[in-house]
Fold each of these.
Amino acid sequence: MTAPLTDQQVAQYNRDGYISPVPAIDAERAANFKAEYDSFRNSGDPEVGDLLRSKPHLIFPSLFDLVRDPAITEPVTSILGPNLLAWGTSFFAKNAGDPGYVSWHQDANYWGLEPHEVLTAWIAFSPSRRENGCMRVVPGSHLGEAFEHRDTFAEGNLLSRGQEIAVEVDENSAADICLEPGEMSLHHVGLVHGSDPNTSTIPRIGFAIRYIATHVRQHGGRTTATLARGVDEFDHFDLETRPVALNDTTGRANRKRAIEQQHKVLYAGVDRNATA
Ligand SMILES: O=C(O)CCC(=O)C(=O)O
């Protein structure tokens, strides 16, 4: 399934701010990733939520390899060029009947990355449909304004700070990103997107990888990233290392350090008690 995007797909990405569906891995591999996710989720580890939310690829060797897999990176190079870093990874999971949702937001507002040669590959490990709370996007919104956001830290919001756009978003203009297991979407860091609760009996599990071109800079301090493809001639980020075994002590410590470094930069001045 390894193929660059066509010129038409690149034009579509530039116009709409996203492209979907893009075939990535086969359904069997997606099912294996889901099984590994389920088993870890049910492991009883008291930090499981956090570990899956922020940079899980630093404790899962299989996810670290997926971040670097040409099946994912080849289409991404059509947009960002040959040299890629993965700045972050995150599971976005909703169980059957899960009230969890993602408020409308633009990633660019929070990540402090410039220029905006930054995109998310959102890989479906389960079917992702309207009924189970697929991602929804506002086409073309990456070309419009950078909206003001507020942090709500609202319960049920799957985003780390419950960030949401401070003005009404016209939901009628939104498109559903429907994916089969193993397919992915690519979306621009400025695109308005979110998702609704899962009202179905089918879980929705997505794994998001945040890719940046190697020349992108982090405002406010140095953070870490994984070299996903090509070479890093810029040294703007501390490079992360592959975990050797699932959730082993070294991988866990490396991940912890990377997250602390990232939080110092991203959460500088944020009041976690704010409920605006
Ligand atoms: O999975 C979702 O519903 C939202 C994902 C998201 O916000 C993101 O990948 O930036």
Amino acid sequence: MQATQARGSDAHSADAKLFQPTRIGCIDIANRVVMAPLTRCRADEPAGDVPGSDINVEYYRQRSGAGLIISEGTQISPVGKGYMATPGIYSEAQVEGWRRITDTVHAAGSKMLAQIWHVGRITHPALTGGAQPIAPSAIAPRDVVAYTHQGKVDIPTPQAMSVQQIADVVAQFRQAAANALRAGFDGVEIHGANGYLIDQFLRDGANRRDDAYGGSVAARCRLALEIVDAVAAEIGAARVGIRLSPLTPFNDLADSDPQRTFDHLVEQLDARGIAFVHFIEGSTGGARDLPGFDYAKARKSFRGAYIANNGYDRAMAIEAVESGRADAVAFGRAFLANPDLVQRLRVGAPLNAPDAQTFYTPGAAGYTDYPTLDAQPAVA
Ligand SMILES: Cc1cc2nc3c(=O)[nH]c(=O)nc-3n(C[C@H](O)[C@H](O)[C@H](O)COP(=O)(O)O)c2cc1C
């Protein structure tokens, strides 16, 4: 009797809304499990930060059980790069490389967005081809280092961006979105999270400007909204989303009043009718229960899809979608370590543990060699 009940409840879980199709913006997805953006530092670097090598294609192919894959952070320009061997989306070779990946993901039945990214002050001239990092204000992040081919180096004080430099970055985001569609992506996620350029403008810990891009909440949100508008004008709002992390302290960023800042931003995003907002709830990869922001309120005041992330397990994800708290749930480390994550979640199978030693190292180890359930010895 007990066994029957257990099977019954498993069957119920496998039927959960998390595993049912839905639509995000104009993109139909087979289930509501999203692969979160994951930087893996395995692009072809001497050749110009080009993705699309055989192992890159294989890595994403293995994970195409996801209803939606969000690519690793992908810089919109050489100066927007903050780590070794991250891919770009500003050259023709990069567009062609991504095309190999998106074709493979589509053939396997999934959908894919490009996460378009500018790191702002979180970089070093050794990574940007010699260019000085740019940011809203000339404030260096404390206790953040850059990893270069010469080893670990201190991050220099960035140059405060001129209004012309801001306009150039908006144009580069727009061009990146156009390139993403040419590369076969179904749309883009604008990286507005984790202390990178857009977030540096949003939160007052890094933005001390007193012009149209700093000071008031509306002014701090201006760059994010100009980028959203430019990208939406290029590819249509139904293919555009943005990732936000109002509370994460990652990359030495904080805001004096996150609720007020992000209330305004979410209201403005709603007015623009974009496809989704993707919230990192709490501290990225860490505590979820930080005070200072009400995600349920954001969910209610935004009519597009709400993608939830950070520290979700199977039960939390099923509950979040079943209760309507989220439309979809993004998994980062669990997807990194479990190519067949969706199948495992469906049946309640155990998960491989991620190996942090190989998150950012070159080659197949810790990248394409995590075992699937089928490849594992049968459990007695
Ligand atoms: C190796 C690694 C690389 C990451 N790269 C990115 C990235 O490129 N863009 C981004 O927005 N978040 C990035 N993140 C954050 C994840 O997308 C995610 O927010 C975080 O891991 C928390 O989700 P999880 O608990 O499901 O892992 C990265 C995380 C890890 C572990």
